[in-house]
């Protein structure tokens, strides 16, 4: 049976992918530095190693020891808007860390490298976004993701490393870190409501996103190595129907049976409308029924209610203060 490495496997999406791989009979090694994940998220049966993808010596030792068949690279610091202000941190973790894994995969003859990119690579393109569009990312996070995609293509041409790239979007669900102040709007809203605070919305709340339950992406990511036609391809994965952030707030409040209290903050620099076309993924992996937003939010709300609020550390080490949204500037620390 295959042995697979899952980076970020103590995090939200990575833990779900790990779960599906274990069910499929893989031996799974989870590598996570717990900067955004939690050890209790690691599914029983996986081998957990605490460490960072930035540590190339650790990476090389793991590949030497376990001779991985597949690599599932889900570790990333995925705060798109914040990435403008933490460029060095972003590129070190999201680009250089990925290169460490690609190098090791080439050197140890990994059969397939599965990478979770993002629709952030598209930028403010016409929606719905499709894989044949020319990516023009608008933030440092999207730039890093696109650079990894390009390196995987070059590595396939140069060294024969097969890959599958996924561009998921706005994924939410059980085990998400709801204490993160900078990303994952569904978790932020639920955490705020549990604490008796209003939900904070940047701008007027008419931004549109297709919010995606984890059950609509994790099984496909885990199983993709069993689909030969998926090799060396890029796929959008996620929900099809966009909703405004204002509508999302109402659905979350209803699911948690709490008043819908909202505070609007100054707008931030972000894409106004972002959702994807998924016809390519449906052709490759088959058309699958997707969870309705209200049903997915209800499932996550039940999990959140059982586990309660969560507090995560404030991000330290802002590198660029200029034009930072005031609400973030109040809860970040500048490293001097």
Provide a quick synopsis of the model.
This protein has 336 residues and is an alpha/beta fold.
What would your notes on this structure say?
This protein is an alpha/beta fold. Helix content is 35%, strand content 16%. It is built from 10 helices and 14 strands. It has a 7-stranded parallel beta sheet, sandwiched between helices. A 3-stranded mixed beta sheet has the order 12-9-14.
Topology:
Blueprint lengths: L2 E5 L4 H12 L3 E6 L14 E4 L5 H11 L3 E4 L13 H21 L4 E5 L23 H20 L3 E6 L2 E2 L12 H10 L4 E4 L5 E2 L2 E2 L4 H6 L9 E5 L5 E2 H11 L6 E4 L7 E2 L4 H7 L7 H15 L18 H4 L7
Parallel strand pairs: 1-2, 1-4, 2-3, 4-5, 5-6, 6-11, 7-10, 8-13, 9-14
Antiparallel strand pairs: 9-12
Helix pairs in contact: 2-3, 3-4, 5-7, 5-9
- Overall 3D shape: globular
Strand content: 15-25%
Biggest sheet, strands in spatial order? 3-2-1-4-5-6-11
Output mean pLDDT: 92
Cα-atom radius of gyration: 19 Å
Number of strands: 14
Count the helices. How many? 10
- Succession of helices and strands: EHEEHEHEHEEHEEEHEEHEEHHH
Helix content: 25-40%
Structural class: alpha/beta
Low-confidence stretches: none
Largest beta-sheet characterization:
7 strands, parallel
The CA-CA distance between the termini, in Å, is 50 Å
């Amino acid at each position: 049976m295959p042995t697979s490495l899952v980076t970020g496997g103590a995090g939200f999406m990575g833990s779900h992918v790990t779960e599906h791989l274990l069910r499929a009979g893989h031996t799974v090694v989870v590598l996570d530095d717990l900067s955004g994940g939690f050890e209790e998220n690691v599914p029983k049966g996986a081998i957990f190693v605490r460490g960072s993808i930035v540590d190339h010596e650790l990476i090389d030792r793991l590949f030497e020891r376990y001779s991985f068949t597949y690599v599932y690279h889900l570790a990333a610091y995925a705060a798109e808007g914040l990435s403008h202000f933490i460029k060095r941190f972003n590129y070190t973790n999201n680009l250089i860390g990925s290169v460490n894994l690609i190098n090791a995969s080439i050197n140890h003859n990994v059969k397939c490298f599965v990478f979770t990119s993002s629709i952030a690579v598209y930028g403010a393109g016409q929606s719905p976004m499709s894989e044949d569009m020319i990516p023009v990312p608008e933030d440092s996070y999207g730039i890093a993701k696109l650079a990894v995609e390009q390196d995987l293509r070059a590595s396939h041409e140069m060294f024969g490393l097969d890959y599958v790239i996924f561009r998921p979007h706005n994924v939410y669900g059980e085990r998400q870190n709801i204490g993160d102040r900078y990303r994952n709007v569904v978790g932020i809203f639920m955490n705020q409501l549990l604490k008796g605070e209003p939900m904070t919305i940047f701008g007027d709340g008419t931004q549109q996103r297709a919010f995606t339950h984890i059950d609509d992406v994790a099984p496909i990511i885990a199983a993709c190595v069993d689909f030969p036609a998926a090799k060396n391809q890029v796929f959008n994965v996620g929900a099809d129907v966009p909703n405004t952030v204002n509508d999302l707030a109402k659905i979350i409040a209803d699911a948690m049976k709490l008043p819908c209290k909202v505070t609007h903050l100054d707008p931030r620099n972000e894409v106004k409308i972002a959702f994807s076309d998924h016809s390519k993924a449906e052709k490759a992996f088959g058309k699958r029924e997707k969870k309705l937003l209200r049903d997915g939010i209800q499932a996550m709300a039940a999990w959140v209610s059982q586990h309660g609020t969560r507090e995560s550390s404030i991000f330290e080490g802002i590198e660029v203060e200029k034009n930072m949204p005031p609400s973030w500037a109040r809860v970040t620390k500048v490293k001097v």
